[in-house]
Automatic annotation (TrEMBL):
InterPro entries: DUF4439, Ferritin-like, Ferritin-like_SF. This is DUF4439 domain-containing protein. It comes from the Bacteria. Pfam families: DUF4439. Residues 22-152 form the DUF4439 domain. It comes from Streptomyces sioyaensis.
Length: 170
């Protein structure tokens, strides 16, 4: 009976570590999104620029909230990279719109991971973030996917087969 109690405690530590890892990944993705939306905003004008500004502000707010969550979980928040490698050249407004949709797709994948790893309250927050990313992706792209954030979709789109972006890459 005592061995089972120790095992349960270890399982809780693993769960907490998994949640912290998933929150750190979401924080890294939000850092990349903030950078990416800076590029998007520099290439588009008019109503789309207003939409990009709103997304930029939303991602900054989520990034700041995730920093606090990392602290609350006992971790040190991951810092933003000085720059990020874009997934493709962004010379014009059309490419900027594609980049915005790509950013949101990648965020949806990271938040799907956080839904799996988080506790009940964190799961709700992550599901809301996933939903927001999916809605923004549809607005940018003009169409959506049946199940945003699924690893199978991200694996088909990303050459690395990873749902999460590598450090330093969008």
């Amino acid at each position: 009976m005592r061995a089972a109690a120790v095992h349960d405690r270890d399982g809780q530590d693993d769960d907490a570590h998994g949640e912290l890892t998933a929150v750190q990944a979401a924080l890294a993705a939000e850092h990349a999104a903030v950078y990416g939306y800076g590029v998007v905003g520099g290439r588009i004008a008019g109503e789309r620029r207003t939409e990009a500004q709103a997304a930029y502000d939303a991602h900054r707010a989520r990034r700041d909230a995730l920093r606090r969550v990392v602290h609350d979980l006992g971790g040190t928040p991951q810092a933003a990279a000085a720059a990020y490698e874009l997934p493709f050249p962004v010379p014009d407004a059309a490419a900027a719109v594609r980049l915005a949709a790509e950013l949101e797709d990648r965020l949806a994948a990271v938040y799907a991971d956080l839904v799996r790893a988080g506790g009940a309250a964190r799961r709700r927050e992550a599901a809301a973030a996933l939903r927001e990313a999916a809605v923004r992706a549809v607005r940018w792209r003009g169409s959506g996917v049946a199940f945003p954030g699924l690893a199978e979709r991200a694996a088909a789109a990303a050459p690395s087969g990873s749902a999460s972006a590598a450090a330093g890459a969008l």
